[in-house]
Amino acid sequence: MPAAPALFEQLEKNLKTEGPELVKRIKGLVVFDVDGTQWALDLREGSGSVTKGKPEEKADLTLTISDANFAQLVMGKLNPQQPAGPSRTPPCPAPLILIKAFLLRKLKINGSMGLALKLQPILDAAAPKAKL
Amino acid sequence: MALRTLVTGSDMCSAGGDGAGPSNAVGALVNQLLGGAAKTQEQLRDLPVHHAPPQLHQVPLTPEAAAMAAAAGSRAMVLPGLPQGAVGPGTLDALLGGAPRMAGPPGADVSGMVAEFEQMQRAAGQVPFGPQPPGSGPMLAAAPPAVAHNLRAFFSSAGARTGAPQPLAPLAPGALSVADQCRVRDRSTILARQLFSEQGQGFADAQVARLLESLSVDPRQLPGGLAHVHDEAWHGIWQQRQQAGPLVAADVAAAQHAAALEAVWREQQQQAARPWQMPHVPSTGWADEFAQKGWADEFEQQQQQQQQKQQPAGPQSWAEEFTHGEGEKWAGEFEAAAAETAAAARRSAGPGEAMAATRRMVEVLGADADPKMRNSQFLQFLSKMSRGELLLEEGGLREVDPAAAAAARQWADEFDERQQQQQQRSAGGTAWADDFARQQQAPCAQQQGQRAAGGDWVDEFARGVADLDIGGDAAQEDLDAAWAAIGSGAVPLAGAADWVREFGGDEAGAVGAAPEEWDALYADAQRGAGAAASAAARGREYAFTDPNPFLGDPQALAKGKDLFRRGLLTEAALALEAEVRAQPGNSEAWRLLGTVHAENDDDQQAIAAMGRALGADPSDLGVLLSLGVSHTNELDQAEAVTHLSRWLAAHPSYAAAAAAAGPPPESSQVLSHTLRTFKAAAAAHRGDSELLIATGVLQHLGRDYDGAIASFRAALDLAPGDYSLWNKLGATLANHSHSGEAISAYQRALDLKPNYMRAWTNMGVAYANVGDYTRSAAFYARALSLNPGADHVWGYLRTSLACAGQTDMLAAADRRDLAALQAGLPL
C-alpha cells in the first residue's frame, strides 16, 4: 500500500476543520499525480474536497511526484541524498520544501507556480496526526 | 553570436540526448531573459543588485545602469571604512560559486556559464589598484569611482543602443594596473560585441576604445596575447573531455563540464592577475589585432571545430543534450509555470502575497546550506519576484515548448492506453460496478425488480470479483473509480454495507449464495477498494469482519472481554462482533467493541460501534465520552461537541449546570459556549477525572492545546493508571509540537497496556515528527503487528520508510511482511 492514500485520508479529515481557510487561500483545483494515481483536491468553494481519480474539469495546478517523494514532501523531508554525517540537514522550512522538490526535479509542476507556492498548508494537513 | 549562445550554450547543435528527464528552471529562465537582444538589459538587471548595501541605492537603478550597479554592488561591499552589507562578499562568492558546482541538471552548465559571465561583469567593475600575487584570494581593493561611472555609462549607452553616447569622465592615468587594464579591455570588448551585435563589430570596438580612453587605458601599451592562454586552456579541457569517452550519465558529464569551465575561468583570472608572467607583446591597433586573433574569435572557431567533429563526450554534446533533450522540456515546463505565476500575480492582486512569500524564500534560500540551492540565478528570479519586478510578457511566455508539449501528449497517450488495458483486463469488475451504480440510482420500483433477480446479480458480482486481480494496482484503481462513482452518486446511498445487509435479508427470496460467502466477497472487494471506498462508507454502518470463527459461539461476549483484557484487540473485536451479531441490542458488547476499535486506532469503526451502543442505551456516559473523543480524532467538530454536551447533560452531577447554561446563543459559538459550561462545571466539581478528560477533549478540539494539556495532567493526578488518558496527554502534546514530551507520555500508556495499538501508532507519529524516521517506522511496524488491518498505518509506515530511505523495508512493506519488518526495524 502506498503512502499517499493514508496521507490524503488525513488531509480529507483536516478539510473538515481547515477546509474553509484553505479554500480562501488557494481557490483552485489542484491535482496530485502520485505514481500515476490522481488525487483531485478541490479547494474552490466551501470547505473543499479530496477525491481519488482524475477530475472532470481542468486543474489549475497539477503536481506530478512519486509516492516516496510525496511522503517526504508531506513530512517536510526532501533533502538531496546525503550520506549520514555530522551535518544532518534539518527538515526544510516551508514553503521551501516545494521549491526544493521542484528544483531537485522530484516534483513536476504543471500550471500556476504561484498556486504551487501556497500549498504548504495542504502538505501540513496531510501529515499523520496523533489520536486521542 | 548572440549573448544567448554564450549563456545557454550553442544554438547551432544537432539533435542529441535522450530527451528524457526533467527540466531545468535555470536554463529556461536564462532563455526567457535572453529571449532577444532587447532582453539583454533584463539580464543585466538580474545581477545581484539586491545584495548591495544601502548606499548603492543612491545610484539610480535605471535599467540601463543596472549592470554597473551590480558591479558596484560587489565592489561597494568591500569598500574600506564602510559597513558591509547584509550579504558579505564571501556569501556572494559562495552563491555564485555554488552555481557551477550544481550537479545534476544539464542546465547547471548554463548557470555555471552565467555565473562566469556575472563574474566577468563584476570583475570589470571590481578593478583593483594594483597587481596581486596569484592565490591571494579575492581582490578587495576598490576601484576609483570613475571606473564604475564610466563603465556604467558605457553600458547605459548599450541600453540606449542608438542614443547618443554619454560623456565619460576622464580618469587619471596610472590608476589601473596593467592586468586590470587588460581585463577591462578584454571584457569590455567581449561584452560590447555582444551588446552591440546589431551595430556591428566596428561600432562595438569604437565604444570600447572610447571607454578605454576615458579610463586612460592605452590599448597600444597593453599586451595582446592573453587570448592564447585562454585558448590553450580551452583546448586542454576539451581534449580531455573528448578522451573521456561516451557519456555515462548526462548529469555527471554536465556537472564535470561545469567544473571544467569554472577551472578555466579561474585560471584565466589568475593569468590576468599575473601580468609579469605574460608575454608582453606591444602592439598597435590592438582592437584590430584582437579581432583577428582574439580569443573570442578563436572560441567561436573552436566551437565550429567541435561541431564538425561531433565528439560525443565533448561540450558540444553537452550543449546538444541541453538544447535538444531535457533542456527544452525543462524550459517549457518552467516557462509555462512562470507564465502562470506572472498571470496569477496580475489577476489575483495576489502580488502582495506572492511578493511576500518570495521575499521570505529569498531570505531563507540565501541562507540555505545546500549548495544546490545556492543558485544565484534562481535566487535572482525569486528576488525579482519579491521586488515585483518580474513583469514577464504574456505573449512571449505563453509559448509552449514543442518538446514539452510532445512529452505531455506522449504521457497522456500512455496513460490512456494503460487505462484502456486496465479496463479490458477488469472489464467484469467495472461492468459490475457500473451496474451497481445504475441500480442504486434507479427508481425504487426498478430496484425491486433488480432484487428479484438477485441470483443473477450475485453471479455477476462473483464473476466480477473473480475477474478482478484484487492485489493488482490496476484493478484496484478501476474498482476505486467505480466505488468513487458510487459514492459521488446523487442518490442518497444507504451505504454499501447497509445494502449488503438489505440484500442478505432478502436472501430468502434470492437463489443460492450463502450470505457468509457473499459477505466475504464483499469484504474482499472492500479491502481492495481502498481509501475511496472507505470514504464512501465513512461514518455509516459498522463493517463486520468475515470470516469470523466466533460466529455462533454462545461464549463470544465472555471470550471477547477476556481477549480485550489480555490485550488481543483484533481477536477481541471478532468475538465481540460475533456477540453483537447474535445480540444486536447488547449495548455493553457494542460499547466494548467501540473501545477495542478506538484502541486499535480505528475511529470510524469505533464511532459505528459506539453509535449502536448509544442506540441501545442513549444515556451511557462512557459511550458519549468515547464518541466525543473519536469524533474529535476524525475532526468532526460538530459531532464531537454534540456528544460531549450530551455527556454533560446526561451526567447526574452536571445535568443542572448544563441545563442552566442553556443552548448556545448562536451556532458559531457552540464550541466556546460548551467549553465555558464545562469549565464552570469543572470549577464547581473538583476531583472528577472524567469531567477533566471531557474538558480536555473539548479544548483539544478548539486547539487550546495548553488548556487541554493542563486538563489531562489534572485528570492524571486523579487517575494515574488510565492508559488511554496518558495517550490523550501524549497526543495533545504531539499535536502541540511537543513530540519529545509526547513520547514519554505514550511510554507510560504502553507500560500500563503493552498492546495498546493506538499508542504504538502515536509513537510512530511522534518519532516521525522529531525526524527519527527509522524509529518511527519501527513503532508503526509494531502497531501493525497488533492490527494488520490498519491501512492508514501501512501508509504511515511507508511514509516514514521513504523518509528514512529504507528501501529494503519498503519492499517488505509492499509485501506486508510483518516478520521481515519487525526483524529489520528492531525497537
TrEMBL record, chain A:
Principal EC category: transferase
One of the record's GO cellular component terms: cytosol
Domain SCP2 residue range list: 8-82
The UniProt record lists the keyword Acyltransferase: yes
Enzyme Commission designation: 2.3.1.176
Alphabetical list of InterPro entries matching this protein: SCP2_sterol-bd_dom, SCP2_sterol-bd_dom_sf
A GO MF label: acyltransferase activity
Assigned keywords, A-Z: Acyltransferase, Transferase
Protein name: Peroxisomal multifunctional enzyme A
Organism annotation: Monoraphidium neglectum
TrEMBL record, chain B:
Cell compartment(s), UniProt: Cytoplasm; Peroxisome
UniProt record, GO biological process: protein import into peroxisome matrix, docking
GO molecular function: peroxisome matrix targeting signal-1 binding
Protein name: Peroxin-5
TPR repeats: 587-620, 689-722, 723-756, 757-790
Gene Ontology CC annotations of this record: cytosol; peroxisomal membrane
Disordered, as annotated region: 297-321, 408-432
Stated family: Belongs to the peroxisomal targeting signal receptor family.
Signal peptide: none
Source organism (scientific name): Monoraphidium neglectum
Highest taxon of the lineage: Eukaryota
Protein's UniProt keywords contain Cytoplasm: yes
Keyword Cytoplasm: yes
Pfam families referenced in this protein's UniProt entry, alphabetically: TPR_16 (PF13432)
Keywords, in A-Z order: Cytoplasm, Peroxisome, Repeat, TPR repeat
Extent of Low complexity compositional bias: 301-311
